[in-house]
Specification:
Blueprint lengths: L1 E10 L2 E12 L4 E5 L4 H4 L1 H11 L8 E7 L11 H12 L11 E3 L2 E2 L5 E2 L4 H10 L4 E5 L3 H4 L6 E5 L2 H9 L30 H13 L3 E4 L6 H6 L10 H14 L14 E2 L7 H5 E2 L4 E2 L1 H4 L4 E4 L7 H5 L2 H6 L1 E6 L2 E6 L3 E6 L18 H8 L4 H5 L3 E4 L5 H5 L8 H24 L15 H7 L4 H14 L3 H17 L7 H9 L4 H4 L3
Helix pairs in contact: 2-3, 7-17, 19-21, 20-21
Bound molecules: adenosine-5'-diphosphate and magnesium ion.
Length: 519
């Protein structure tokens, strides 16, 4: 007796349908698994046997062959436990042979007691099931929330094998899972910009970075508020669009980092990996690959505090993903790609002791030490950072001020959201005019051709830009960067035109090169 049950596998953040075929014939009882399973799938036999007994079913005394098709793709993880057991119980008869499984997809790991444990990537699998025309998706209860983010398919939250068999046999039907209403979650009251004293230039730089999605580097002596400002970046970012939310949630679903009962991540991720982190955890990889921090930060912020403390080769692995906004991991059997479109916020002291260039304190580093420290940040990485801003030491008056002058995150976020809307509308008009802008969501993502076509300064602004280009000895990349930044400054201003003031501010946001990286 052959039975087929549908399940889903994962490739990167995309699911694909897997047919689990179970055949049993009278011979010495055996369990044989084929279809490119890795070791975690191969262990399923023992779990399935125990879960079967402990749920009160007889395990068939047959020679069983289980095939996971398509047989040319490597199957990983424990999510095939449930469909395999269903197939086996069907050959046994415990699952009625006339139960219709053709429009249903099953996933879940089994515990020895017969309850279901969570799996990685349920959201992606459910989306694949929907796209392939299936009508029902059965997930472990703890993954039902994320699966329910997919529209157009009914999700069932399964606790145990017994409950699932009773439902499929029609003896005790389960109700479909009802997700939480799809309203945006309120912004959680986290740290606020109102707590930051002084640092007007850096605050403005963070606002521009948030509005245009520009990468930013904060430089300054210790205790001036670099970590403080960076940690508040999430509080001024615009909300994610639905498509962005789905993409980001998919990555967290695959990585297994979704909080339980969260169906859709509404807030942009803010990831702050420590400098002791390995390159593999930062960009993703490993023998059973999972997305790294750069992908977990997709559509949000990656914050690297004390940037020069990161090993050079770890910093350098960021270059390609920063450029491509995706990362490809090569492995024995093909490659997988994870998206990683994030805004980089990095902070650093100007030297190891922290006081190079300080007006009062004396720097104790030798020129060679300063050079070594600063040169950890390579030219190619700097090239990908649009904004550099210096945070001076606070004056006593600034520090003890009552802070009533400091704007709150809500006020800044209001301006950021308005600028993003202005930008989105403008980008939409540009692409209607025939400028190809596929996938561009903010100014930071404009490539050089798109910059030339969409960021056109007025005649006066052009003159200023020419003067800056010649005086600062800019490269073509530097020229594009200033136009991109000026475009965001103009968007914050609600201005269609790029005027002198916008160019002037953009030039100011990249003027530290000559102080710290004079080449
Ligand atoms: N601009 C600031 N406004 C208010 N408090 C500040 C400011 N800068 C630093 N502080 C205080 O000093 C502490 C350390 O600041 P931090 O942001 O970690 O400095 P950095 O990262 O520049 O070394 C903060 O927790 C805060 O209490
Ligand atoms: Mg710090």
């Amino acid at each position: 007796m052959l039975s087929t049950v549908f399940s889903a596998g994962l490739s990167g953040i995309d699911g694909y349908i897997v047919s689990v075929e179970v055949d049993g014939y009278p011979a010495i009882p055996d369990f044989h698994l084929v279809g490119l399973p890795d070791s975690s799938v191969k262990e399923a036999g023992e779990r399935i046997r125990s879960a079967c007994f402990n749920s009160g079913y007889r395990f068939p005394e047959l020679a069983l062959t289980v095939n996971l098709a398509p047989a040319d793709r490597r199957k990983e993880g424990t999510s095939f436990d449930v469909p395999m057991l269903l197939g086996i119980l069907r050959t046994e008869g415990a699952l009625r042979r006339d139960a219709d499984l053709s429009c249903r997809v099953f996933t879940g790991e089994l515990s020895l007691t017969g309850s279901l444990r969570g799996v990685r990537g349920a959201l992606c699998m459910c989306a694949a099931a929907r796209d392939a025309g299936f009508r029902e998706f059965y997930a472990p209860a703890c993954n039902a929330g994320e699966a329910a983010a997919v529209e157009g398919i009914t999700v069932f939250a399964v606790d145990s094998v017994r409950q699932l068999i009773d439902h499929l046999n029609g003896t005790c039907l389960m109700a479909p899972f009802r997700g939480e209403p799809a309203e945006p979650a309120p912004m959680s009251p986290g740290p606020d910009f109102a707590d930051v004293r002084g640092q007007g230039a850096a605050r403005r730089a963070m606002e521009i970075a948030a509005a245009g999605g520009h990468n930013v580097l904060l430089i300054g002596p210790p205790g001036t508020g670099k970590s403080m400002l960076a940690g508040r970046m999430a509080s001024i970012l615009p909300p994610m669009t639905f498509d962005e939310a789905i993409e980001t949630t998919k990555i967290h679903s695959v990585a297994g980092t979704l909080p339980q009962n969260v169906s859709l991540m509404r807030q942009r991720p803010f990831r702050a990996p420590h400098h002791t982190m390995s390159a593999a955890s930062l960009v993703g990889g490993g023998s059973n690959p999972v997305p790294g921090e750069i992908s977990l930060a997709h559509n949000g912020v990656l914050f690297l505090d004390e940037l020069p403390e990161f090993p050079r080769q770890v910093i350098d692995t960021l270059r390609q993903p920063l450029e491509d906004r995706k990362v490809t991991i090569t492995r024995a059997l093909g490659r997988i790609t994870y998206p990683c479109s994030f805004t980089l916020v990095a902070a650093m002291n100007p030297c190891r002791c922290g006081y190079f260039g300080h007006p009062e304190k004396k720097c104790t580093c030798s020129p060679a030490e300063i050079n070594r420290y600063i040169s950890k940040i390579s030219g190619p990485l700097l090239d990908r950072i649009d904004i550099e801003v210096e945070l001076p030491s606070l004056s006593y008056d600034e520090l003890v001020s009552d802070g009533s002058a400091a704007e709150s995150s809500a006020v800044i976020r209001g301006r950021v959201v308005a600028a993003r809307e202005f930008m989105t509308e403008r980008l939409r008009r540009e692409s209607e005019k025939g400028v190809p802008l596929a996938g561009v969501r903010c100014n930071a993502q404009l490539d050089c051709a798109a910059v030339r076509r969409t960021c056109v300064p007025t005649a006066g602004a052009e003159l200023l830009l020419r003067a800056a280009y010649e005086r600062l000895g800019l490269s073509a990349r530097g020229y594009d960067r200033i136009l991109r930044l000026a475009r965001t400054v103009a968007d914050l201003d609600g201005s269609e035109m790029i005027e002198e003031a916008h160019i002037a501010q953009a030039v100011g946001l990249r003027s530290l090169d000559r102080k710290y990286w004079p080449h």
